């Protein structure tokens, strides 16, 4: 069976990762974007510099090395239930300079918004194979904790201070 859904480094992403590896520096992946690819399931293209039709971009919630495969990184974003009204067919991973580092396609999914009469919190996850996870800054910029009736968000402001806010439902 042919693999239908996958993530790849873009040409710029591969060059930046190679440069970070060579210089012993870090590539700072900070944002994830999702898009609808204008209604057609896209094929990831290494020459891409942006998504075909971006619908949302926001900071990553999690960026870590896959505990089951040390050559894979897992990037994750959570879309809250009050955002949506679009299809998701494409995913992009951006660095701290706004450069598209990786691009992926995904199974088509509709992200409803509450005004349509239905809402859900949706986790978008990209798993990307890289040659050197050491050259990528791995950190969590936002952590979400679920409790039965309440949602709490901890936003890391620095390594020593945290703001805890309750997100209304």
Automatic annotation (TrEMBL):
It comes from the Bacteria. It holds the Pfam family Phage_tail_fib. Residues 1-139 form the Phage tail fibre protein N-terminal domain. InterPro entries: Phage_Tail_Fiber_Structural, Phage_tail_fibre_N. This is Phage tail collar protein.
């Amino acid at each position: 069976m042919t693999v239908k859904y996958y993530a790849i480094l873009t040409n710029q992403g591969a060059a930046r990762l190679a440069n970070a590896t060579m210089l012993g520096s870090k590539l700072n992946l900070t944002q994830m974007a999702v898009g609808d690819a204008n209604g057609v399931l896209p094929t990831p293209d290494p020459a891409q510099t942006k998504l075909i039709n971006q619908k949302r971009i926001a900071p990553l919630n999690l960026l870590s090395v896959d505990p089951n495969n040390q050559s894979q990184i897992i990037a994750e974003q959570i879309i809250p239930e009050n955002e949506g009204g679009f299809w998701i067919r494409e995913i992009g991973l951006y660095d701290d300079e706004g450069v598209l580092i990786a691009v992926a396609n995904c199974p088509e999914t509709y992200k409803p918004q509450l005004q349509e009469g239905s809402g859900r919190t949706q986790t978008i996850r990209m798993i990307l194979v890289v040659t050197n996870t050491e050259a990528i800054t791995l950190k969590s910029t936002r952590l979400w904790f679920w409790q039965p009736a309440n949602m709490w968000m901890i936003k890391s402001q620095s390594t020593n201070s945290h703001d805890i806010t309750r997100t209304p439902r």
